[in-house]
Amino acid sequence: MKILSLLVLCFLISAVYAVLGVDISDYTSSDAFHCMSQNGYSFGVVRGYCSFGGVDPNGVDNIENSIDGGMNHTDVYLFPCFPCGDPAGQVDALVDYIAGTGYGMVWLDIETWSWSSDLGTNQQFILALANELVNQGQSVGVYTNYYNWQSIVGLGWTGVSQYPLWYAHYDDWPSFGDFTPFGGWNEPSIKQFNGDVTVCGVNVDQDYYPL
């Protein structure tokens, strides 16, 4: 009982010094973002580029709606299309599309999809994405998790570990206590701790960021 009480206390203390956010892939109105901002969520990450190989048609509206709705910070994620090739071109298309919208950084969404069976080929593709974002003057982050990284590039590959990590683990627990180092990351920056939940009438994933 004492151990359980201590864990609860630690959670409550950590929650005080953290903020919650959402990431979205559907159109979301400014009213919905305002509702979220009034219910404990202070940052949003919106999809800007889709795995089919083109920009998200709702991306610009969602960035602007997130900002107008009162989110303190709004980022964008790029879900790359490996079979489409031309990683630099995918980055350029996104950056051109969202220019001037007031977004923060761009996260590379690296999860199991249509990747090569050759880990080295995947590594080079991801490096090309990250390098072009840097060339375009963007702040870069990487979204993934332990098992996706293992299957796509190998746990030991550290080629983009200089960038912040946003990892996914759906344990419904806004804490980094579950994190296992991989890919050169010894600690993460953001955790996606819950997926496909409804907040203010919108399907979102829930995210945690410690202050």
Automatic annotation (TrEMBL):
GO biological process annotation, one example: signal transduction
Keywords recorded for this protein, A-Z: Signal
Gene3D superfamilies: Glycosidases
Pfam families per record: Glyco_hydro_25
Gene Ontology molecular function: any one: lysozyme activity
Signal peptide: 1-18
CDD domains to which the protein is assigned, alphabetical: GH25_Lys1-like (cd06416)
UniProt feature coiled coil, ranges: none
Family under the similarity heading: Belongs to the glycosyl hydrolase 25 family.
Name of the protein this chain belongs to: Lysozyme
Organism of this sequence: Blepharisma stoltei
